[in-house]
Amino acid sequence: MKPISRTRAVLAAGLAVATLGTLTAGVGIAQAGEKDGRRGKVGEREIAGLFDRWNAALRTGDAEKVTDRYAEDAVLLPTASPRIRTDHADIADYFEHFLQKKPRGEKIRSVITVLDENSAIDAGLYRFHLTDPRTGATQAVEARYSYAYEKRDGRWLIVNHHSSVLPAEG
To answer: Is 85's pLDDT higher than 90?
Structure first.
């Protein structure tokens, strides 16, 4: 009887090891698939392109086209205003004034984090070339930025945008 018990024990142990190995491999494949699937659906390039579309809207000079890039419940902490903008009308008002300076933005450095297929963050440094409406003189302003994006009804919208003048090193 001992040989049978020993055989059963060896078989049981072998089965346990095989089951554990299969389970571990399956979990690893599932996790890799989730990560790869997420990156395959939403990539950093797609998120980076959202800034390009926003910047193109700025170049139209139309505050509504810019504001249309923002969700209805978006929050804007703008570079050139002390007021927090928390609705469509306030955001449009900010851009009515900001667009008078004919802003043209360019990214200096960008760090993009894709959170899932419906949300991402783009943060970094950008430079705006602004034209004084009275004198026509152009000035470059460097600023820090962060955009939080959500995909709503199939469309990427800005839900939070912070921009502040880059402080001098201290």
So the answer is: yes
φ and ψ of 91, to 5 deg: -65, -45
What six digits make up the tokens of 148? Answer: 């939080």
pTM, whole model, 2 decimals?
A: 0.75
The residue among 73, 100, 99 whose CA lies nearest residue 88 is 73
Helix (H) or strand (E) holding 149: strand 138-152
Task: Collapse the DSSP code of 61 into the 3-class scheme (helix H, G, I; strand E, B; otherwise coil) and give the result.
Answer: coil
Range from 11-20, 138-147, 156-165 carrying the lowest mean pLDDT = 11-20
**How far, in Å, CA of 43 to CA of 35, rounded?**
11
* Cα distance from N-terminal residue to C-terminal residue, the chain: 82
pLDDT of residue 41: 64
Task: Return the bridge partners of 129, or none.
Answer: 104, 140
